[in-house]
Protein argonaute 2-like (Phoenix dactylifera), 502 residues
Amino acid sequence: MLKQLELFTSSHGAILLVAFCSGEIAKQFGLSVAKEMTQVSGRVLARPDLKLRDASGQISKFSIQNNDCQWNLLKNKLLEGQNLQNWGILDFSAQPSHYKQQRLNTGDFIHYIVKRCRNLGMQMNDQPLFVLDSRMAVLWDYDKLLGELNKAIHAAGAQQLQLLFCPMSDRHQGYKLLKLISETQLGLMTQCLLSHNANKMQDQYFANLALKMNGKLGGTNVELSDTLPLVKDSPFMFIGADVNHPSSGNTTSPSIAAVVANLDCPGISRYATRIRAQPHRTERIMELMELGEMCRELVEDYARVNGVKPQKIVYFRDGVSDGQFDMVLNEELRDLVAAIKSDGYSPTITVVVAKKRHRTRLFPKSEREPCTRNGNVPPGTVVDTAIIDPMAFDFYLISHNGILGTSKPTHYYGLQDDHGFMSDELQKLIYNLCFTFARCTKPVSLAPPVYYADLAAYRGRLYYESMLEASSSASSFPAPTSSGQGGFPKLHKKVEKRMFYL
């Protein structure tokens, strides 16, 4: 049931306008700006029921009772815990960067991580295949790090290494190089952790670690109990796309495009990924133009898993401004459709843009209105009147619980809708999706398809930075180019269907 609430909305830009338009010059031009915030009406969407396993291991419906929409796993288990039998530890913290830093307490770590994973429903071997000591200094050197990772693979023997724990004594820059080698050259799934955090042996820390591990291994942490509106009757796919640009002072590095798509239906918990480099600060995803390589590959991956291609596609796009909407519709969407339509296959497509770069904020009008403990509007608050574009299909949605400061809504635009979504249906679909994010037990602020695409694009940025650093040092790593895909590595086949960026 929807709850109605009265809100105030403000924009930092409007506040500045009040400051600059309050003098004599403004009066001469007949300008005046109200100092009061705009009052709008909003609604609080009903939170969805979730699907988890109870303490006995049976699948059950879980209703969230907390107003902040968070849930815990103290009396519940993961919906589909993976079997982790072949794992190892490559301990870089064994020789820390500084004498005051801690090395991992390996024995206690093994005991607690195995215990927590088993309590959550993951079947984990109680002993690793190996524990190898290394040193933090290795992370600076491409050739030495590659040798250490190969040593770990050989230590597993005939067993296929499923996951490699990589404890570190600090947040080392070599993390980027480790991920580059593991995910593009060796096809090795790694789980990095800080030794001083792990040594505290806190239950919540190991629970969060288990969520990431299970997601990387292809498991399902949680699913929605109810079906999603309008996509429930046929195979569907959610595609998320984002482009990561270099910093403002960088004039040569390429932009990194990432596209993700769910492989499981109707579970929507496992996503495959493609990452490409493209010319400097190019927002349009160029690979979509080049025969739609990434999206076509993702549709084919989906078909191999489900035995059928998706009949309905919802394409989420992040990071574009209002002036680039035509580019998304007339160029990206056109190229995507041209690439995936073939031999009578023609899925319906809905295009949704998610925007976080705006200055709109929402506040409860009075203490009588629903709010969180720190005074923010509650998760599920949606505004689709007064402050929206009257000529567009858009709305503001706060899907998360803001812990610090004022919650920032996400502004969603429906640019094309082949599925015929009503406003309530699209809002419910996006809000419910926000509960399925793999690495936490609460709804997130952005629809997971674009959230994952953002994480994947950032991981691609780390690849490029580590390639530059490795090629500039005395190593055998080739230098990347700055003009796009040349020299930029593709994900290893063993990794591209996994959520390695969690």
